[in-house]
Design a protein that fits this description.
This protein has 207 residues and is an all-alpha fold. It has helices at 3-13, 18-47, 50-61, 64-80, 91-110, 132-146, 150-160, 166-173, 177-194, 196-206. The longest helix is centred in the N-terminal third of the chain and has 30 residues, at 18-47.
């Protein structure tokens, strides 16, 4: 918007001296520039976490199409409410919290529960530099993770894959720190049982 246009708007909205209108228009222009800079920075901050949102969405929905839709809706909701994000350093957990809320609402509406991730193509590819044996172990671990109860799966994913702290997970899932600890312990116990062969092989490779 040109300065002349701003000047005319202010003259109409707040009649007064031409000098006052010019000063107001200048101040408004500066505010607009500042707001645009803030928005640009927030947009970049949110965009940096889209992969994390998609991984999480895939883990809780168990379906590629639903994960993509949930990711899109999460990012859109985050963008619309970006000005409420006071601390950019918590953008990741903030977006994951939005995704959790959206999926919880979807479950309530449709009265369905997340199902097991059964399509091999939906499991993120392991590190391409790893050996075939390591890739297979990673796939087995992800498959076992997807068989956990929903809450345990969420907690385990957020802590082990997204590297969130217990406190951050508690905020994302709106549960207590004690609940995070209990679900994590239960998930690890189950995974140790289901992946005992993988664990033994891994320990053997380290010796």
């Amino acid at each position: 918007m040109t300065s002349a246009r701003l000047k005319r708007l202010y003259l109409v909205a707040a009649p007064g001296s031409e000098l006052a209108a010019r000063d107001s228009a200048t101040a408004f222009s500066k505010r607009v520039a500042t707001d645009q800079a803030v928005d640009t920075q927030l947009d970049a901050t949110l965009a940096a976490h889209v992969d994390s949102v998609y991984r999480y969405a895939l883990r809780i929905t168990g379906n590629v199409e639903q994960a993509e839709e949930l990711t899109q809706e999460t990012m859109l909701r985050g963008w619309r409410n970006r000005r409420s994000l006071k601390d950019p350093t918590v953008a990741k957990s903030w977006l994951l919290r939005i995704a959790t809320n959206l999926w919880t609402d979807e479950i309530r509406r449709s009265q369905r529960r997340p199902h097991q991730l059964i399509e091999p193509s939906t499991i993120p590819n392991p590190n391409p530099k790893s050996t075939p044996e390591q890739q297979e172990s990673a796939r087995q671990a992800l498959a076992a993770l997807d068989q956990l109860p929903p809450r345990q799966r969420q907690v385990m994913h957020l802590i082990t894959i997204e590297q969130l702290s217990h406190a951050e997970v508690a905020k994302v899932l709106a549960i207590t720190a004690a609940a995070v600890k209990a679900n994590l312990a239960a998930a690890r116990k189950t995974l140790r049982t289901q992946l005992k062969d993988v664990y033994k092989e891994h320990q053997g490779n380290k010796t």
